[in-house]
Amino acid sequence: FLPGETTKTISVDVRGNSTVPQDLASNVLRTFTVQLSIPVNVMLGDATGVGTIIEDDVTFTVNSLEDASDANPGDGIALTSDGKVTLRAAIEEANALGSFETVIVPAGLYQLSVAEDIDVLSGEISIVGAGAGETTIRARSDGRHFDVAAGALLVLDGVTLADGRAWIGGAIRTAGDVVIHNSTLTGARNFSTSGVRDGGGIAVLRGGSAEFYDSQIVDNSTLDGGGIHVTGGRVKLVRTNVSSNSGNVGFGEGAGLWGDDSQIEIIESTFSGNHARRGGGINLGGNSSLTVIDS
């Protein structure tokens, strides 16, 4: 405050807002509280203010089960050459805009067929499905679903990622940040010639992070880290089930979770029925830290 000023309006850029609002469709405004403290050479008449979160994210609603690219990334409309809004086109458009985008994915089976992963390159992209039992995204026979770049944030809510295939990270590979709510990662498999080696469900690379809330990581198979593989990153599991994953070919480690030089936090979550040569549930090495609460 300058001398003589008694009021001031501030704006807060809400970044990393990874909880998808349940009132997204109705656009009900949400609020937060700002508390001023430690005044210097001034008296605070009212130290509490209320801020409003304006839902100004760009929203794309997918209207096709097909897998096709955006015809003109950056034009703000996410249409393929034949005028459809596909999942891939919506994310490519979101990458081009590079800010805060939400992609609504209705119920259905979305089979990826283009010979490239769907890259999340910049900004914050939220993919909102109709529920893990309703919206399924299935990878092609030789690729993963999503590859998240450093500095980008991918939020998944209410989807199933099925049948990922890749050398590292069958469903998701991330050097950025991933937050997953009410979703399932399942069916990633290892092949002797070209398949998942590390991280059947998800591979978190150095500097990246993954948080799971009320989700399932089940029935994935790889060499190390059938469900989750993390190297130099951070993983948080809250009310999440990690089960029936395997370190295959008889000598894998950490079927549920494998970590090295990483921070792992497990809260009210379950590990069960995971099988590997060593550390069926969890195998940690290096300077890793593990916090387990009510699990």
Q: What do you see in this structure?
A:
By secondary structure, the chain is mostly beta strands. 4% of the residues lie in helices and 37% in strands. It contains 1 helix and 27 strands. The strands form 5 sheets. The chain has a 9-stranded parallel β-sheet with strand order 3-4-7-10-13-16-20-24-27, with helices on one face. Helix 1 links the parallel strand 3 and strand 4. The longest helix has 11 residues. The termini are far apart.
Short summary:
With 295 residues, the protein is mainly beta. 4% of the residues lie in helices and 37% in strands.
N-to-C CA distance: 48 Å
Q: State the major sheet.
A: 9 strands, parallel
Shape: globular
Question: Order of strands across the widest beta sheet?
Answer: 3-4-7-10-13-16-20-24-27
What is the CA-based Rg, rounded?
21 Å
List keywords for this structure.
nine-stranded parallel beta sheet; 295 residues; single chain; 1 helix; seven-stranded parallel beta sheet; mainly beta; 4% helix
